[in-house]
UniProtKB/TrEMBL annotation:
Coiled coil: 94-121
Keywords on record: Coiled coil
Highest taxon, organism lineage: Bacteria
Key word Coiled coil present: yes
Name recorded for this polypeptide: HTH cro/C1-type domain-containing protein
Length: 121
């Protein structure tokens, strides 16, 4: 998943419009954010920094690299996440687990087929 997709997921999770998201970053209009979301621009460092300052509950590792949960955990001092955000985190983890399970199942099926072919010889 690329940063454009993660930004869209974040905006969706925050349940705000792109324009409101842009305004929280100090932008008057949403053009810059729209261009980022559609892949015409890549977010610059200052934009990422503004996002993390405006939304301290966002996990920087997730935003930058797609690693971990979208929102920080409860034991983080600046987390301040809501129950709804925790539910989104759980949903995201379940989605990741389902993807991994599907990949493991495909690998398992391939290995079984190879083993069956070897036994047939």
């Amino acid at each position: 998943m690329n940063i454009h997709t993660r930004l869209q997921e974040l905006i969706d999770a925050l349940d705000i419009s792109v324009l409101e998201f842009a305004r929280q970053l100090g932008e008057r209009r949403g053009e810059k954010v729209y261009h980022i979301l559609h892949g015409r621009l890549k977010p610059r460092y200052d934009t990422i920094e503004k996002i993390l300052l405006a939304y301290p509950q966002v996990n920087a590792d997730w935003l930058l690299r797609g690693e971990g949960l979208m929102f920080k955990t409860l034991d983080s001092p600046s987390a301040a996440i809501t129950t709804e955000e925790r539910l989104r985190n759980v949903e995201y983890l379940l989605f990741q687990l389902n993807e991994r399970m599907a990949l493991l199942q495909q690998t398992n099926d391939l290995l079984r087929a190879e083993l069956a072919a070897l036994n047939a010889k």
